[in-house]
Amino acid sequence: MRVTFTVNGEQREADDVWEGESLLYVLRERLGLPGSKNACEQGECGSCTVYLDDVPVCACLVAAGQVQGREVRTVEGLAGDDEQLDPVQEAFVAAGAVQCGFCTPGLLVAAHDLVRRNNQPSDAEIREALAGNLCRCTGYEKIMDAVRLAAARVTPSTEDSK
Amino acid sequence: MMDFLQPTSWSEALRIKSERPGAVPVAGGTDVMVELNFDHRRPEALLDLNRVAELAEWSEEDGRVRLGAGVPYARVITELGDELPGLAMASRTVGSPQIRNRGTVGGNLGAASPAGDSHPALLAADAVVEVASVRGTRMIPAAEFYTGVKRNALEPDELIAAIHLDVARGPQQFAKVGTRNAMVIAVCAFGLALHPEQQRVGTGIGSAAPTPRRASAAEEFLSGELTAAGLWSAPRPLTDSVRRRFGELVAQAASPIDDVRGSAAYRRHALAVLARRTLGWVWQDYCGGSWPACA
Ligand SMILES: Cc1cc2nc3c(=O)[nH]c(=O)nc-3n(C[C@H](O)[C@H](O)[C@H](O)COP(=O)(O)OP(=O)(O)OC[C@H]3O[C@@H](n4cnc5c(N)ncnc54)[C@H](O)[C@@H]3O)c2cc1C
Ligand code: FES
Ligand code: FES
Q1: How much is the pLDDT for A147?
Q2: Where does the 2Fe-2S ferredoxin-type domain lie (chain A) (predicted)?
Q3: Which of B98, B164, B198, B256 is the most exposed place for a label (fewest CB within 10 A)?
């Protein structure tokens, strides 16, 4: 089947999609967007986290056909058109929160969603917001630092514009 | 070959389900997609319910909430915390934010896992499941909905439309035991609700029997004690023996198994602890006096 939807602001079409295929597969294998990672395909690791109609979800658990006509934003769509990194991405770099990087795209989307809603998150709120994202390298401390830093940097205007 | 069927209205969804009873409904996909990704299931067709707008709505009328089967947990938590406190608490413990953004109570009922977290809360609150087909609508009390391990009362042509629950008229609690906070399948879970207007107690136990079930003897014992001592209208602290007996009766209602998540004996013990603890919380709340029946 054919699936047409908006990805990072652009209308995209995927052809020959198998009916039982996931959004993650479509993004990575059909649309050339490998940013969202595939690690578990069962919703456990969060490395495939994307926005679906502005809500963070595991792309591996969304059936491709379910996104027909809807809007998806992946990690590739976080940076601005001018290639300027999003403050959350900058904070991950600055805080050294990236080691192997496999978990990073999903964490960036989850953290992005948190700081736009709450620019003074407590540690408990950060842990809760990132509870669906596993990282096997960092031990999470640097990630916590990065999210605190990102929250401090998010100005109300970028927060409003999402 | 598999078909992907996308009804845009409830009547169309019911018609398709009657013509294609083998089509597997997909709401949030958090159970179905795992099965597809791992080739555990190859249905002849998927029936996507995301486009049926009514399913994602809830309404309140005369003190009763009709919760559309497709309302995700995240919205139960943010929109219905006051009306349905027990279900909202249970929803908070489901998976991760990403799972709560997609997963639905209807999907939990469809999967009918004994470990599903909504079930103890639905049982305790006397929830009724509205199921429908082209033949008509049936209202099934939650206690009769679970028929076996991962089996429910749906006929092949039926879909779950909504869940009906009273707006809470007394305190409600939900607690579960798992190995860590996020992303755990419950080792066991317990839901408790006081129904002061009916002088009744509602319970639900999860992960401790082939199906979610009530602890009827515990309900009767506690409501009997509260009524006999006149505590519904003039609440006073409960005695230790009442709390202990309640915990014992809840544990006795379970028929747990040994598995990798815990032994049967541990589950029974943990259930008794959860029951005593949640009773402590709801009773403290009730004694606070903000509930109409004790004013
Ligand atoms: C990582 C992860 C963590 C999880 N953690 C928990 C947890 O902590 N607690 C918990 O209880 N569950 C948990 N789950 C399981 C799952 O999220 C829940 O069971 C959820 O409620 C399923 O809802 P859904 O809308 O995603 O269902 P779907 O996957 O869309 O459907 C589930 C089943 O219900 C059927 N169905 C769905 N809607 C209807 C309808 N309207 N009428 C008839 N049948 C229908 C489907 O055909 C399918 O059989 C977890 C899952 C994952 C992947
Ligand atoms: S690949 Fe989707 S959650 Fe792990
Ligand atoms: S940096 Fe390697 S998994 Fe997180």
Answers
A1: 97
A2: 1-78
A3: B198
Alpha carbon of A133 to ligand 2 centroid (Å): 9
Assess: ipTM above 0.90.
yes
Closest chain B residue to the Cα of A129, Cα to Cα:
B97
Report the CATH fold assignment for B1-48.
3.30.43
Name the segment(s) of chain B with CATH classification 3.30.390.50: 172-289
Bridge partners of residue A3, in order along the sequence = A14
pLDDT average, residue stretch B68-72: 98
| B10-27: pLDDT as tens digits | 999 999 999 999 999 999
Whole-number Å distance between alpha carbons of B177 and B186: 6
* Span A3-77 CATH architecture: Roll (3.10)
B32 CA to middle of ligand 2, Å? 14
Q: What is the 3-state secondary structure (H, E, C) of A33-58?
A: CCCCCCCCCCCCCCCCEEEECCEEEE
Ligand in nearest proximity to the CA of B30: 1
Identify the pLDDT of residue B285.
95
Contact A46 B30 (CB under 8 A): no
Q: B77 in contact with A at a CB cutoff of 8 Å?
A: no
Selecting from A1, A49, A68 the residue whose C-beta is nearest the C-beta of B98 gives A49
Q: Which CATH number fits domain A87-160: 2.60.40.10, 3.40.50.2000, 1.10.150.120, 1.20.1280.290?
A: 1.10.150.120
Q: Where are the domains of chain A?
A: 3-77, 87-160
**Which distant-in-sequence residues (6+ apart) come within 8 Å of B224 by Cβ?**
none
Q: Is A137 in the pocket of ligand 3 (CB under 6 A)?
A: yes
**Residue B181 confidence (pLDDT):** 53
Task: Say how far apart CA B251 and CA B253 lie, in whole Å.
Answer: 5
Angle made by CA atoms B128, B134, B136, in degrees to the nearest 5:
40
More confident residue, B288 or B75: B75
